[in-house]
């Protein structure tokens, strides 16, 4: 019979790097850094296998011997310890995983592909508000189409877009659960859609201020506050509020603002940044904003981070306006169409839209920066109250 219990607790702590047998297939693998790992070697069905039993710093010699004996008994019963351990883990997971746990795990797994690692909460919010309060404590394997229907029916028609996002996020969670080996119904969301029926709600465009009214509103933003300056730069550049709120001083180089590709909505090619030409008026706003800068951000909030999406919207709401900040992109686009001779490709690129198919874009290497610069100077002249007529078409 093979010798057993060759090692001592002192030897486990003091041995140098190498592999040391305790007997009957139990080995201690020591590393150069002093750490170690317990390994059980065994043969099952003609295959030689090695099974980790834990780190030597966490599992004592006595505990390693006891664990090794339990798994050797399983080998004698003609069962593979590694496969049995995995089967037990799957059974345990199936018994304890609630939807809220799966949702958290799915969110963590996807953070890297979300803008800003999902810190804004937009990915998780539809689940958090409309799914988890009703289904969060339900075992994910028990969720069916009727549960989903009951959770989303209150908003299915009144908040159609939010309901659609919540349904999609839930579908991702179910796929994540299936990947973990849980027994879930991957068709549950499709069945729930069939039960809920076609959505009646029609999405409404964000209210946009008519371009002729923009100069008057711009002139009212004169107190030099973070909110006023952020709105001024938003109007002058035509960018979305996300990149605007997160603009950093190191993104500004001369009269060009470079927005990182990952911050651009709808751009799948994460290697392409977007350059924004800055007019003289925009540069003046940026210089004024530098007085408020904190941790590199030009538009910091009062407490921490940057101003929220609602900060600028609330300003317009308090002024009893139906318009919203995002609508200034439409104001700019309408001004370009009515007051300039700007080619379609240039006009769309002003707003950061992707123009043309993948083949066309592969051959077109320009981002029309100089043409866009002329357009934005003309827009700034208009916004700042300088006379721009149809005769001054760009």
UniProtKB/TrEMBL annotation:
GO biological process: DNA integration; DNA recombination
Domain of life: Bacteria
Domain Tyr recombinase stretches: 201-376
Gene3D superfamilies listed in its UniProt record: 1.10.150.130, Integrase, DNA-binding domain, Intergrase catalytic core
The entry's keywords: DNA integration, DNA recombination, DNA-binding
Family matches, as Pfam families: Arm-DNA-bind_3, Phage_int_M, Phage_integrase
InterPro entries (UniProt xref): DNA_brk_join_enz, Integrase-like_cat_sf, Integrase_catalytic, Integrase_DNA-bd_sf, Integrase_DNA_bind_dom, Integrase_recombinase_N, Phage_int_M, Phage_Integrase
GO molecular function: DNA binding
PANTHER family named among the record's database cross-references: PROPHAGE INTEGRASE (PTHR30629), PROPHAGE INTEGRASE INTS-RELATED (PTHR30629:SF2)
Family: Belongs to the 'phage' integrase family.
Protein's name according to its UniProt entry: DUF4102 domain-containing protein
Species name: Neoaquamicrobium microcysteis
């Amino acid at each position: 019979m093979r010798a057993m219990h060759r090692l001592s607790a002192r030897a486990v702590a003091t041995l140098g790097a190498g592999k040391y047998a305790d007997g009957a297939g139990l080995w201690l693998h020591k590393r150069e850094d002093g750490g170690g790992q317990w390994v059980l070697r065994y043969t099952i069905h003609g295959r030689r296998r090695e099974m980790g039993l834990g780190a030597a710093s966490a599992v004592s010699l006595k505990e390693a011997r006891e664990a090794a004996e339990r798994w050797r008994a399983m080998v004698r019963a003609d069962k593979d310890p590694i496969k049995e351990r995995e089967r037990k883990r799957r059974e345990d997971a199936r018994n304890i995983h609630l939807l809220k746990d799966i949702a958290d795990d799915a969110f963590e797994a996807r953070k890297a592909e979300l803008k800003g690692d999902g810190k804004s909460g937009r990915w998780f919010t539809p689940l958090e508000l409309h799914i988890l309060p009703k289904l969060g404590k339900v075992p994910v394997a028990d969720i069916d189409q009727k549960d989903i229907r009951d959770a989303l029916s209150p908003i299915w028609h009144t908040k159609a877009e939010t309901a659609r996002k919540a349904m999609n996020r839930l579908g991702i969670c179910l796929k994540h659960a299936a990947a973990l080996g849980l027994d879930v119904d991957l068709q549950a969301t499709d069945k729930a859609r069939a039960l809920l029926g076609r959505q009646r709600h029609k999405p409404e465009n964000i209210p946009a201020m008519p371009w002729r009214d923009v100069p008057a509103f711009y002139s009212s933003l004169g107190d030099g506050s973070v909110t006023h300056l952020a709105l001024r730069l938003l109007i002058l550049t035509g960018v979305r509020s996300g990149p605007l709120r997160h603009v950093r001083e190191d993104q500004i180089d001369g009269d060009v603002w470079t927005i990182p590709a990952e911050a651009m909505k709808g751009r799948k090619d994460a290697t392409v940044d977007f350059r924004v030409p800055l007019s003289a008026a925009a540069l003046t706003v940026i210089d004024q904003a530098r007085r408020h800068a904190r941790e590199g951000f030009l538009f910091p909030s009062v407490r921490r981070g940057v101003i929220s999406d609602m900060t600028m919207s609330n300003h317009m709401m308090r002024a009893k306006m139906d318009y919203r900040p995002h609508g200034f992109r439409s104001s700019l686009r309408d001004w370009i169409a009515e007051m300039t001779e700007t080619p379609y490709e240039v006009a769309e690129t002003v707003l950061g839209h992707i123009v043309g198919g993948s083949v066309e874009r592969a051959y077109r290497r320009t981002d029309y920066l100089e043409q866009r610069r002329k357009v934005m100077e003309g827009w700034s002249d208009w916004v700042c109250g300088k006379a721009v007529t149809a005769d001054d078409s760009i």
